[in-house]
Amino acid sequence: MPNAARTTRQAPGEAADGSARLIVALDVPAVRDAEMLAERLAGTEAVLKIGHQLAYTGGLALAERLVRAGRSVFLDLKLHDVPRTVEEGVRSLAGSGASFLTIHAYPQTLRAAVVGRGSSGLRLLGVTVLTSMDDRDAAEAGYGSGVLDLVRRRADDAATVGIDGLVCAATEAQDLRNALGPGTALVVPGIRPAGSEAGDQKRVVTPAEAIRRGADFLVVGRPVTGAADPGAAARAIAAEIAAAARDA
Ligand code: C5P
Question: Which residues are catalytic?
Answer without folding.
Answer: 78
